[in-house]
Amino acid sequence: MNVPSPDQWETVERLAPLTGKNPVPAEKSARFRFEADKFDAAGLTSLASESVEAPRVKECPVHLEAVVNRIHRLEGEPRL
To answer: Cβ contacts of residue 43 below 8 Å, gap of 6+?
Structure first.
């Protein structure tokens, strides 16, 4: 997870309508457009992560990486 600083709100807004999924799913096509490199399109720099495949955003002051090792379902929890 990339955590931007408050002054990066405009950059975050530039990312909002972009998706890396091509083709854009029909249910999202009215709100999203495909962009192969979303970070570059928003004026950001991709940075390799240390523990996961998804890249980080170099300009963000905080990055969180996590790997799920195990999921414990609660009794009565619906299966997805």
So the answer is: 11, 14
What is the phi/psi pair of residue 3, to 5°? -110, 110
Using CA atoms, how far apart are residues 47 and 80, in angstroms rounded to an integer? 32
Domain boundaries, the chain: 2-63
**4-58 pLDDT per residue, tens:** 999 999 999 999 999 989 999 999 999 999 999 999 999 999 999 999 999 999 9
Strands (E), the chain: 2-3, 18-19, 33-34, 46-47, 56-57, 62-63
- Tokens, residue 43: 């004026």
